[in-house]
Amino acid sequence: MPNRLQPSVRNLRGQRGMPQRTAYLLSCISILAAVSKPVLAINKCVGADGRVVYQDAPCMAGSKQIDTGIANSPEAEAEPVSAPEERKGETSKVSLRHAYISKTIKRDGAYVSFAMHSAWLNKNKLPVRINYKIELLDSAKTVLKAYTYYLDVGAIARNESPRPFESFAVPKLGLGHKYAGGEFDHRRATRARVTYHLESDRSEQVLDNIRVVTEER
């Protein structure tokens, strides 16, 4: 007949297991406490001479300690500071006020060059870089040739010196054949169109119906 006062094997195992689980939980709590960042209270210490000192350590003996309710976490991560937004220009604030194309014919028609005369106005409060395209057109506004360039403009109006963008020699084929083609038939170029935008703003502006003025030297 079993002795009722003798604990069963299951009860003995349960009693032995309880201290083990308790020790495990305590070890976890101690680890978490070790890795957690310290948060120290800021204490107001008033000395016997009335001098006030604020510190995160307990006040010295003989000083009156006043809890300010302020916590100090020296290892707390600082909040990231967002970088200032980069200033960008707007194409709508840049205008090509006026322009014309000069076509210079030299050496009795054997050499031709094109240059653009322009005046820009930049109302942005910072210098900008303009990407622009020049298209030479005939009387029917057919594109004969196109050229792409860039220009740095300050935050003011700027009149440009003539900027050459095309030059070529015109070969001769003998008496009665002054023009033999060259790069393209420059005689057809009567108008031009300039399309431009800023590097920071891809919206385009257009100045159309630009004159091509012929000069002979």
What's the short story on this structure?
This protein has 217 residues and is mainly beta.
Architecture overview:
This protein has one helix and ten strands; from the N terminus they run H-E-E-E-E-E-E-E-E-E-E. It has one helix spanning 9-35; strands at 40-46, 52-55, 64-72, 94-106, 111-122, 128-137, 143-153, 157-169, 191-198, 201-216. It has a seven-stranded mixed beta sheet with strand order 7-6-9-10-4-5-8, with no helix packed on it. It has a three-stranded antiparallel beta sheet with strand order 2-1-3, with no helix packed on it. The protein is mainly beta and 217 residues long. The longest helix has 27 residues, at 9-35. It folds into two domains: 39-73, no CATH class; 91-216, Immunoglobulin-like (Sandwich).
Helix content percent band:
10-25%
> How many beta strands in the DSSP annotation?
10
Following the backbone from N to C, one meets helices and strands in this order, namely HEEEEEEEEEE
Task: Decide which structural class fits the backbone.
Answer: mainly beta
Molecular shape = rod-shaped
What's the level 1 CATH class of the largest domain?
Mainly Beta
Number of domains: 2
Number of DSSP helical runs: 1
C-alpha-based Rg, rounded: 43 Å
The CATH topology of the largest domain, please? Immunoglobulin-like
Mean pLDDT across all residues, rounded?
A: 77
Low-pLDDT parts are 7-17
Please describe the biggest sheet, giving its number of strands, its sense, and whether it closes into a barrel: 7 strands, mixed
